[in-house]
Amino acid sequence: MSQTFAADDGAALPLHLVEQQAFRGWLEQQPPQVAAWLTATGFEGRLGDLRLLPGTDGAPLGAVLGLGDAAARKRGRFAVARAVPQLPARLWKLEGLAPEMAEEAALGWLFAGYSFDRYRPKKQLADKPRLVAPAGIDAARLETLAASETMVRDLINTPASDMGPEELELAFLAMAAPFRAETRVIRGEELLAENLPMIHAVGRASPRAPRLLDLRWGERGPKLTLVGKGVCFDTGGLDLKPSSSMLLMKKDMGGAANVMGLARSIMALGLPVQLRVLVPAVENAVGGSAFRPKDILTSRKGLTVEVNNTDAEGRLVLADALALADEEQPDLVISMATLTGAARVALGPDVPPFFTDDDGLAAALTTAGERVADPIWRLPFWEPYEEMIEPGIADLDNAPSGGMAGAITAALFLRRFVAARYAHFDIYGWQPAAAPARTKGGTGQAGRAILSALPKVLSL
């Protein structure tokens, strides 16, 4: 269950937000007992420093949270959310909140209320601190974003035993149903009949049939197609991963989860677009029918692909889905995938790279990411590396040798299947350690940046 804002019943306790440089002046305005308490406990307004303010009966009268200085805040997002895990389960309102911080503070509070309780129930919603919506924010929009983020995290956190292609299909249909979106699912051998051969090849060794999930919503406006990698578990196939590298492979459907979360927000907010969502849902398993190293696959687009590593399967399933998307000549195609370790080596877990040939689109996405605390970073479709994905024996190589520029060569591979305006996001989809507003585990990435940029890039 996602968090929502609470109504102000007059009993909300104040959470005072104090920047470090303004602390002394603020302290002089406080009652003597508050000033004495904060002085005695060494409070100075450092980032994340929290003190409950005790009343005469021992019950809290409120709390004060340090926001540090501007340099400290640049080193992290969601400064106000640092307070949420430390506060008692009461109703709170923010005092001293700068208007430009209101949306990030409120959304971060909602995000911080998330917990994954499917297998070990913990705190109920009533056991967590609640927030009165700050003045001036669009509370309904932020609650929509929080609900979409909850769905994304739940999908990624669910282990593959309970989140295979069929379960991802059910989640996809459940996501679509409240908005009366049109859906279609192509399963198993039907993939070959529908000319989606690489999706079939990657998923055919698993007893859990591969499939393509297809959603359509909206009858007016520009055509927007989202494509998400839905590899529900990745063993690496016959190029088997070491066991340590499989530990997070339940998250290899993070691209699918994130495009589903973005699609849910688009529909819930009623954006005037013709939305299509394509998710190739497969399990890359080991078996007698598994596709093999050095196999040559013919894609939906007709391009042939030499398989030089069965562990580079995500780009194969995405390629067929992207070719299908491109056939309708949409105004914008966006793909999201937990695609390469190279992206994480380059930028770490917090900042997903994206690729596009469109400078205006890139600028709009980057600006939006900064505005909504959803950072992204552009990497190039570097043309000189095109020859690295051309093996000679086939049109394309799914895993160039050499170990260099892996994120770029993967993106170049995908670009071969799209003629439309296109952006590709190589996300991680996982929070390695708890951080403000982000619990350890599955997480949404780039979706809010994309959502915020859409009005500009599609002229909505």
Automatic annotation (TrEMBL):
Positions of transmembrane segments: none
CDD domains tied to this protein: Peptidase_M17
Keyword Metal-binding: no
Keyword field: Aminopeptidase, Hydrolase, Manganese, Protease
Superkingdom in the source lineage: Bacteria
Biological process per Gene Ontology, one example term: proteolysis
Single GO MF annotation: metalloaminopeptidase activity
Pfam families reported in the protein's UniProt record: Peptidase_M17, Peptidase_M17_N_1
GO cellular component, one term: cytoplasm
Keyword Glycoprotein in annotation: no
Membership in a protein family: Belongs to the peptidase M17 family.
The protein's name: Cytochrome C oxidase subunit II
Phylogenetic placement of the source organism: Bacteria, Pseudomonadati, Pseudomonadota, Alphaproteobacteria, Rhodobacterales
